[in-house]
Design goal:
The structure is a homodimer of 230-residue chains.
Chain A: H1 3-11, H2 20-27, E1 31-35, E2 40-42, E3 50-56, E4 59-65, E5 68-75, E6 79-81, H3 83-88, E7 95-98, E8 102-108, H4 109-118, H5 120-146, H6 149-163, E9 169-171, H7 176-182, H8 187-196, E10 202-205, E11 208-211, H9 214-221
Antiparallel strand pairs in A: 1-8, 2-7, 3-6, 3-8, 4-5, 4-7, 9-11, 10-11
Chain A binds a DNA duplex (30 and 30 nucleotides) through residues 148-150, 175-177, 185-192, 195, 206.
Chain lengths: 230, 230
DNA sequence: CCACCCAATTGATATATGTCAAGCGTGGAT
DNA sequence: ATCCACGCTTGACATATATCAATTGGGTGG
């Protein structure tokens, strides 16, 4: 564990309040590893051996059932994932694969649980982190349960526009088939959803989306503070 | 706050490790209240003033968006709800209403947050509780994203059968329209889903469901340890 | 520069689910 | 006992979404 890696961990809110010696202890046996694109990191029924910290790259968490597969969420650096599974010493509930070449710090789950019971500051931060993760999934659940495919796409565009500086032009940060899976539809249906949004001022050119009538788009999308991420 | 109510709180894993004086302090200003059926307890955008403990009755957590409404989960006694919102001092992410006459203990959210920062044992238990809640929503999310309506119903029947003693006959604990909403479909579609399950040995007589071919049902449902509750 | 690969698109069609309307049945109130 | 309210069911139809097949088109390696 080199100093720079320790600083990356320290910079995350989750670990910001942890005592120095507890942090060192937790990072013992941790290792930073680079994976190429399209590599499966773990599968949903595997036992959780590591808390993962995505340092660089991009990771997709997905799930399978009844011969179907779907993207549950995307992880962007720098962020931890599978904290809940690591803390409860249970199975990963989701599978993970790299979408691009990625650097991941792997911390033994047992170390995390030990730190949890020894370090008051860490426990407090973990509570906050888990509560935020919980709200994140609730949002995703509401999104898919209460909105149609076209509405989900419209809201995705609105959120991306906000994140990319409200310029009216966004660049999709992921492949369309991944976006389709994340929005809970097929790639074919995503193409048609974009076509449906044409009368609402959406122009598509490859990965570039142009929003010509923001008002009309919002009328259709009905964005909600309680569903869409900030 | 009477002794019996304190004992109810103490019996929950979440509060089992809390120091006596912290518990007393937290329960100061708490009150036990009885609500009739069909009463809205709070709405999703309201600020979270109380952590709720359902002592008796049944509560539905639901959400609204784009002129649609859906049941997110059902709370059965004895259990807490909206812990994550209470701890982060944010809005309830869901609305709540009683399904039947219910007794609810309401604990000021500020008290819970204070107890959280003062009581090590409580913080540890809260971490565990939040991790379990998180996994619960992930399951629900996978359920709706990866299964069809008929598959969700089939798995619901299998889980209920297990919970009610594997007798092959179950009694629906909720109205069919509520079940429909929880499974993410309309009441009409639920009726048809039951009809679809007829060839798989499902007989319906009011709230009583008879499972005549458990094997066939499982083949259709493909139950998963990682989606269906224990 | 060309050829190939693969994501994306488009069309035709099938399936899943929702909507609207009507009718049925049971349980509670008068 | 009768009537009414309401949840449930059923049918006809509309919409949403998936599937299968064919084609397009951009990027990359040879």
């Amino acid at each position: 564990m080199r100093t720079s890696e320790k600083e990356i961990v320290r910079s995350l809110p989750l670990f910001s309040e942890m005592a120095e010696d507890h942090l060192d202890e937790m990072l013992t046996g941790s290792f930073l590893q680079r994976f190429p694109a399209t590599v499966v990191l773990f599968s949903e029924s595997d036992h959780t051996d590591f808390l993962h910290v995505l340092v660089d790259g991009q990771v997709e968490l997905y799930a399978s059932a009844n011969n179907r597969e779907g993207t549950m969420t995307l992880i962007k650096p720098v962020a931890t994932f599978v904290l809940a599974s690591a803390l409860t010493d249970s199975a990963y509930q989701l599978s993970a694969r790299t979408l691009e070449s990625s650097q991941i710090l792997m911390i033994p789950a047992q170390n995390v649980r030990t730190a949890m019971s020894n370090d008051q500051g860490f426990a407090q931060k973990a509570v906050r982190e888990l509560a935020l993760c919980y709200h994140g999934v609730v949002r995703a659940y509401k999104n898919i349960k209460l909105r149609t495919a076209v509405e989900r796409l419209a809201n995705y565009i609105i959120v991306q526009n906000r994140r990319q500086g409200e310029t009216g032009v966004i660049k999709l940060p992921i492949e369309k088939r991944t976006l389709a899976s994340m929005l809970g539809m097929t790639p074919e249906n995503l193409s048609r959803a974009f076509a449906t949004l044409k009368p609402y001022g959406i122009r598509v050119d490859g990965a570039e989306i142009c929003i010509e009538k923001p008002g009309d788009l919002e009328t259709l999308a009905k964005p909600s503070e309680l569903i869409d991420a900030h």
